[in-house]
Amino acid sequence: MKKILFLVFVILSTIYLLPHVAASPSAVIQNDSNFLDEAGYYHVVGEVKNTGDVWLQYVRVAATFKDQAGTVVDTSFTYTLLDRLPSGIASGFDLFEFDVGKSANIRSYALALEFQEAQPLTTALEIMNTSSSKNSLGWLQIVGEVKNNGDTISEYTKVVATFYGADGKVVDVGFTYTDPTTVQPHGQQGFKVTLISTTRSNTATTWSLDTQSTQYASIPELTMPLIALAAALTLGGFTMPKKRRRRSEDE
Prior knowledge:
Number of helices: 4
Shape: globular
Strand content: over 45%
Number of strands: 15
Distance between the termini: 49 Å
CATH superfamily of the largest domain: Immunoglobulins
């Protein structure tokens, strides 16, 4: 017992002596790609990853579109599908040109980011019981349930899907809400996300799902920091949280 107490004392002392670094918001755009949809509109899809140590909100992605000669064709902007972005988590976006004529002239784009620091949400939502299929139009559909592990109601419960191609690039994104959008404490509600494009559905090979509501965020994928993990193991009985994984179209 004395050895355990001594070890805990050493760990806590180490944490106390570590330099305290101020929180730093930062984010990067990754896995972006572009395509013309069936109606002729130009899209840039991708994801923003929170690379800082604080939560983010109002994550805005702006684009400058240029033609073959490097002349600006147009500008546009959008926001990530998750309203708040936890540290270490990525959220998809879909940024597109509203003019078909201008879309046909776009040959390159440049992206820029803006965001604000946000207060964390309680992590209590869990996606479960998922499956996928294609409907009669060839559109990929993912169905499942969101479980509310919290003690209060989850309102406007949103489910976000990011679809990836074989090269790991984002090929499209989508979102929906549970039906109904309110999930009772320790209850669960179903959802269906549909990728409304035969071409995009055929291109998608894997995907990831996330959920967020007014009150709650998803149970995080990331495990606790190493020092905290060591302390928990020392005190006994720690179980590693299960990571969410990308789903494959073959499942």
